[in-house]
Each structure stands twice: as C-alpha cells, then as structure tokens.
Amino acid sequence: MRALPVGDDALLVEVSSGQEAQALHAELLRRRAEGTLTVREIVPAARTVLLDGLDDPVRRAAELTAARLPKVSARARELIELPVRYDGPDLAAVAGHWGVTEREAARVHAGTEFTVAFCGFAPGFGYLTGLPDHYDVPRRATPRTAVPAGAVALAGPYTGVYPRPSPGGWQLIGTTDAVLWDHARVPAALLAPGTRVRFVPVEDA
Predict the structure, then answer these.
(1) Buried b / exposed e across 154-168, counting CB within 10 Å, b at 16+?
(2) Burial 54-72 (b: 16+ CB within 10 A, else e)
(3) Pair (92, 192) in one structural domain
(4) What CA–CA distance (Å, rounded) separates 157 from 46?
(5) Are residues 91 and 190 in the same domain?
(6) Helix 102-110 vs helix 91-98: angle between axes, to the nearest 10 degrees?
(7) What pLDDT digit, counting tens, does each position of 13-61 carry?
(8) How many domains does the chain have?
(9) Domain end among 72, 92, 125
C-alpha cells in the first residue's frame, strides 16, 4: 500500500488489487462513520482510493500504510436485485468465449452475486465484480456508436449497466428496465461502491 499526496489536503492510496481497494474503501467508510476519520470525500477506483479533505494528510498516510486491512463482511452491505432479460446481441459471442450455451451463460451470470467496486464512465454506471477470472471477456473489437440505456454488459472482469444511451465497446448480454440514475431521486445513483447486486432473470410478457 502506498499513499501519495494530492494537493494540500488529499491522499491517493494505491493498493495491489481490486479486492484490496474494496476492503480499504469499506474500512475508510467505517472509520468515518465512527468518527475516527475526518474526510470530505472517499472515492474508490480499480486499485486506488482517493481521500479528499483530510484533517491531517501526513499523519493519515503513515497510519494507512502501517495498517492491515480487515476482511469485509459482504453480508453487511445493501443488496439490490436488478431484473434482466438475457437478450443482448453479444450473448452468443460471450457464451462461445466461455464454452457454454447461451442459456448456461445466462445462468452463470444470474447465479453470481456482484459487488459494485467503483463508479465512473457516466453518472450511475457501476463497475461490478464477482465473476471468476476465467469468465473475463474482451471488449468488442469495434465499439458501438450507440448503446441503449439499460443494456447489461461485460468487459474484462466487470459487469455494468449503461444508465443512459451512449457509445460503448462492452459485450451486451441483456437488458434491464431499472433506472440507474435519476436526478430527482435521493441518492440519484441506484448503485454505490460496496453495494451487492444480483441479476434476476425475467421473461417478456
């Protein structure tokens, strides 16, 4: 673990894996909630966590690099279920890459409990982890110029849901009617780092 200064009152903490980043993020949230950490924002990414608005960056850097991260209990986090129709145009390609049928690919995906590792790309877009490494899939060789809102997609180790229409190069395996981002909702984003997610298959009426 390495803590790098960012400006006068922020730190960027680098770790060696996505799992460590998730554990660090959860631990920092716990410390803030109990009042032992004063910080304005905690922003996780793939292998880093940014702490902005720290009360004492130098001291906090020393504390963080010396600490051992506790294991995080996933059961303590919120679980959100997203209805999904496994009807994406890339489902056959993903199934072929995995060496299974389309039905089995959908079963594997729906049978996985995901965790939102971090958010980015677009408001409401969460990078979900949970599939074993051997289910990693490459991005499309040619990105689409338009991907519809609600598209459930895979790329590398991540699953994501497009919150609004946009270009994209991920493999589309399904669709959901869930609203990922609603500025009139509090909070506006349905998914937040640390949230547990399950995809629940549905059939069109």
Answers:
(1) bbebbbbbbbeebeb
(2) beebeebbeebeeeebeeb
(3) yes
(4) 11
(5) yes
(6) 90
(7) 998 888 888 888 888 888 888 888 889 998 988 889 999 999 888 888 8
(8) 2
(9) 72
